[in-house]
Structure formats: C-alpha cells, structure tokens
Task: inverse folding
C-alpha cells in the first residue's frame, strides 16, 4: 500500500500541534485541506487514525503511522544530505527517557545537536525499552542492557542515587538508626507506581521486603524538595543533592551506600545512520556526567 506523503504530513501535524487549525497553519494550507487529507488516509487504511478532541490524539494505528512518517523524513534527510534550513524544516524525533536523566544530564546532549525537534516520552528507566518494542519511539535511554529487537545498544554509565532525608525527618523516624522495621513505618517518596528504586535499595541493604507508606511525587526536583522539607525519604540523584548533603540540609540514610543504576542508549537499527550525531552527543555527555561503568 502506497501512503501519500501529504496525507501523512497532515496526520503528524495534527498530532504534533493538537488541532486541525494549528496543523493547517503549520503546513500553510486550509483546515479543510487537512481534514480532506486525513479523511483520505483513514479511508485508505480502513481505520480511524485521530480521536477528535481538545487536543486531538492518535489511535494506536495513527500513532504507528505518524512514527513511520517521522522516521521516513529523518532517513530521507540523512540520505539526501539535507542541511537544516528554512528550506528544510527541522525533523521531529520521538524518544523515551527517564525523568531523572532529563533533569540532570540529558538536556545538554540534546541541545548540542542541530536540526531535530524532540518529542520526549517520560517513563521509568526500567520501562522506556517498552516504547521501543512497541514502535512508539526511535531511541531510548533505558536500564536494559539487552537490546530490544532490531536495536543497537551503547553503554552510558551509572546514574548514582543516594537515599536521603532531612535531619528532622531522621530524628523523628529513625531515632535508633535506620532499620527495616523503622523503614516500614517511615513515609517514603515514590515517583510513580513503576518506581522501584526505594524498594530495591531497601532489599539490597536489609535483605527484606517492606511496604512503607508512600507519597506519590512525579517530579525529579519535587522529590528533592519533598526530602528537604521532611515530607519523606527517597532516592535522589547524587548530582542534585550533593550540595544539600554538603550543607547538611539532607542526610544519607546510610553513609556510603549509594545505589547505582546502569543506563544504556538503545537506537532502532534502521535509524542508526540518521541519528548518529545524536547518539554521539548522548554517549559523550553521559560518560562525562554519569559514574563510570565497572
């Protein structure tokens, strides 16, 4: 089946900008033309591709077709050696990345690469690989060393975490030291239901499974603030809490017991040539910023 590039462009523009009107403005056509192109594409594939709402969202097939169109545009630009300019607009790239990487070392790596617009999907580092497996993204920062099907893997380094809490929190909840029993009752910070860092740290250091009461705080910087203000204890990136540890505003729950998470850059093999500059930037930045892999 041949898919019309103009129809695919209409689909991706609707999803990128959220409405038919905004997509029309971006492509310099009328909203009617956008609607007609989408209708023709939906008739060709025999399925609904866009859920009309505010903003418009994709059906599963619509998301796959939009991702295909993005990849084709990137590959064509790379094959033709097109430089990014007014004549050759920037290409959209979907990536799955952990929030903690985004908040610490990843942005400089993205900013160092010209010609790409990033659509970042935030997820736990143990789950970003699923976005690759599902074909929703072209590359991901993940904690999985084994390559997803059809992907290449690059070692990045270890993201170091420290279990931290405020001095007042430590005095209130761990007056006799940090024990498994005390951890079972002390409020804990959790990024999301997928976040297992705190539980993994407890299991590694106490060889027990406990179920503390937990605050759900889906923000990397909010995690630090919550620990500083005594809301709970949590695993914070070392780079974000180093100054607070030095000043004494945060305290490690156990001295010299960091938790290192190995990170990898996985890229869909078909996209490797087109994403070579980005891969180089991410690998170089990560190896400067993260702890060296053993």
Result:
């Amino acid at each position: 089946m041949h898919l019309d590039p103009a129809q695919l462009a209409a689909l991706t523009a609707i999803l990128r900008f959220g409405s038919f009107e905004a997509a029309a403005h971006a492509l310099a056509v009328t909203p009617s033309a956008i609607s007609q192109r989408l209708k023709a594409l939906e008739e060709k594939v025999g399925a609904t591709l866009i859920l009309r709402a505010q903003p418009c969202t994709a059906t599963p097939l619509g998301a796959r077709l939009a991702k295909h169109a993005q990849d084709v545009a990137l590959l064509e630009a790379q094959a033709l050696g097109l430089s990014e300019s007014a004549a050759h607009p920037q290409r959209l790239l979907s990536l799955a990345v952990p929030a903690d990487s985004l908040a610490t070392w990843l942005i400089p790596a993205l900013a160092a690469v010209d010609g790409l617009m990033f659509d970042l999907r935030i997820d736990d580092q143990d789950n970003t690989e699923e976005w690759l497996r599902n074909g929703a993204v072209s590359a991901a920062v993940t904690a999985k060393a084994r390559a997803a099907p059809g992907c290449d893997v690059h070692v990045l380094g270890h993201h170091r975490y420290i279990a931290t809490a405020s001095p007042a929190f430590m005095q209130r909840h761990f007056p006799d030291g940090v024990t498994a029993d005390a951890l079972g009752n002390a409020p804990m910070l959790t990024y999301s239901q997928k976040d297992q860092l705190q539980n993994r740290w407890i299991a590694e250091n106490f060889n027990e499974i406990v179920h503390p009461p937990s605050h759900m705080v889906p923000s990397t910087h909010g995690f630090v603030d919550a620990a500083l203000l005594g809301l709970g204890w949590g695993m914070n990136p070392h780079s974000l809490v180093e100054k607070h540890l030095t000043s004494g505003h945060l305290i490690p729950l156990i001295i010299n017991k960091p938790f290192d998470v190995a990170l990898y850059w996985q890229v869909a093999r078909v996209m490797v040539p087109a994403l070579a500059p980005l891969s180089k930037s991410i690998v170089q930045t990560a190896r400067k910023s993260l702890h060296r892999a053993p």
Summary: Confidence is low (pLDDT under 50) at residues 83-89. The first helix runs from residue 5 to 17. Residues 90-294 form a domain with the D-Maltodextrin-Binding Protein; domain 2 fold (CATH 3.40.190.290). The CA atoms of residues 184 and 291 lie 30 Å apart.
